Amino acid sequence: MPEYHVIPNEEEVKRLKKEYGLTKDQITKDVATVRSWMLTQPHLPKLPESKNDEIDFWIEGFLRLTKNNLEKTKVAVESHFRLKTMFPQVYDVCDLPNYVESDVYEYLTMVMMPKHTPDGLKIMYYYFNDNNSYLFRPIEIYKRMRLMLDIYQKKGIDFTGIHVLIDTRHITLAHISQFDLFQLKNLIKHAQKAYPLRLKHTHILFPPSFIDVAKSILKPFVSKKMFARLSFHKNIETLWEHIPRDVLPIEYGGYNGNLDMIREEWKTLILKNNDWFLSNENYKSDESKRPKKKKSFSYDKMSFKTLILD
User: Fold this and answer.
1) 208: which DSSP letter?
2) Is the N end or the C end of the chain the one with fewer CB atoms within 10 Å?
């Protein structure tokens, strides 16, 4: 089975490097700068020399995601390790072989589509296999997303943004009620820094009758920008106005494989990377060692009542 999901598209890699000024010399220099900075951060994990090449390639991926912005790359690296500390359940890989064969895993279809859109974006898709919510775990969405994104980081980043495609035919209010909205908001806040992808659009396919209720519940916990990038499609045809059919699978009127094949490939890829996930599981931030931010003095905040005159 070809690994067409994760083999970087060389044309897309070249396009990104050219667009962001990522020459070989510049990449080497910037990666070294980030590595040196990491060594000065007491709360970041100390990585063994055996992982030097892997970490360099990993940092290069962040340079692409942040459009060659060094400061944003540092934030992304730091946020990645912090996210692992704050949400260990998202990074749990203790038994991936049994996990990918479980009913909980099979209940949720969540994949990245193989091809890019004409503007270089990827399609992240998910769908519940039936409307029984007893197998649904909100943490599954976050966990599966991070497994896929980390595999891309390992293999090579060749995109910087995504369309999210959600088929909601089997979503019920019982699914919505299981979300811890404060946890969701906190996770989104940190995940956006740890995985600095550009969210082009979220497409809701076949919205349920209670969609307005769901929107009202979620609105306080999701940014205005994310809400502005929501589209609702009662039929497939309107989706094609946003995403070309040659990027979509046949189940959605496309020409790019079928979902069963894509699902199986992602399962295979997760298993093939099991040892790699395990080898990185314990590299987290130590928040007790995080440097405290220095409070800056501001004349604007000072009033005569705070002055003590000798």
Assistant:
1) -
2) C
pTM of the model: 0.88
Residue labelled with tokens 């510049």: 26
Rounded distance between C-alpha atoms, residue 39 and residue 48, angstroms:
12
Q: What is the pLDDT of residues 103-127, one digit of tens each?
A: 999 999 999 998 999 989 999 999 9
State how far the alpha carbon of 155 is from the alpha carbons of 59, 150, 206, 269, 306, in Å. Answer: 12, 9, 34, 11, 57
pLDDT at 294 over 70: no
Q: Which of 18-27, 87-96, 144-153, 177-186 has the lowest mean pLDDT?
A: 177-186
- Taking 3-state DSSP, the helix, strand and coil percentages for the chain, each rounded to the nearest 5, stand at 55, 10, 35
CA dihedral in degrees (72, 279, 141, 228; nearest 10)? 10
Phi and psi at residue 203, in whole multiples of 5°? -110, 120
State yes or no: pLDDT of 245 exceeds 70: yes
Q: Please tell me the distance from the alpha carbon of residue 16 to that of residue 120, in angstroms, as a whole number.
A: 9
Q: Is the pLDDT of residue 145 over 90?
A: yes
Helix 70-86 and helix 24-39: axis angle, to 10°?
50
What's the rounded Cα separation, in Å, for the pair 63 and 196?
Answer: 10
Give just the sign of the alpha carbon dihedral 55, 69, 186, 225.
negative
Distances in Å between the Cα of 183 and the Cα atoms of 86, 133, 138, 222 are 11, 20, 10, 12
Residues 24, 80: Cα–Cα separation, whole Å: 25
Distances (CA, A) of 64 to 23, 151, 231, 258: 11, 15, 28, 29
